[in-house]
Amino acid sequence: MARKPRLSLPNIPQHIIQRGNNRQPCFFDQQDFKVYLCKLEEYTQKYQVSVHAFVLMTNHVHLLMAPTESNGISKVMQSLGRYYVRYFNHTYKRTGTLWEGRYKSSLIDSDNYFLTVSRYIELNPVRAAMVQHPAEYPWSSYQGNALGKPISLLTPHPCYLQLGHTPAAQQQRYRSLFTHQIPNWTIDQINTATNKEWVLGNHRFKDYIEQQTGRQTEPKPKGGDRRSANWQRSQELAQNR
């Protein structure tokens, strides 16, 4: 069966996940992280894609990016993936694939989910119990978004810029968002949308994406879903509006 084309639109952010094959490491040394970020910057500049958040874990990566053209992110990931596999295989005297199939992606509703997904990405090392606070992890955009470290790869998104009138105010307000935990059900939403390659957003945003692409943006409800707790909760909320 042919793979369905990705949902992608200009200037709409996407949450990207790419994992190492069989969850195996794809970064061993500091130089590996540096090479990946250097080439990510090179290719995002070449294909006019903005990077708003990122984290490089030992066996996978999360990226929050927005393309100027609809196929920009695909071009970035293809070029970056090929280059990094060649680098990695040469460095560690290995052959074969590095990545677990093609990357996963989800369109993000900026108004309702952008800052949440950015936090979700930068909190990955904390959830993995690698560090106690995202500031302790060197290979994420938290260093720039929250602490003001110059990272030429990063482009501030309008949602981030609206946090304050100065970079210092934006960073302070952004840090304050991390005092609140992301609810588990929101984490599940983000994971499901990205792994299933659906759209993360409210109904208005999903309707807009469907109108622009002619594509379904979420799974159709099944008969059993009408008896589920989530369905019942949504009906109660609708009735109370």
TrEMBL record:
SMART domains xrefs: Y1_Tnp
**Region (Disordered), start-end ranges:** 209-241
Where is composition skewed (Basic and acidic residues) in this entry? 217-228
Residues forming the Transposase IS200-like domain are: 9-124
Top-level lineage group: Bacteria
Specify residue ranges for compositional bias: Polar residues: 229-241
Record's protein name: Transposase
Q: Origin organism of this chain?
A: Litoribrevibacter euphylliae
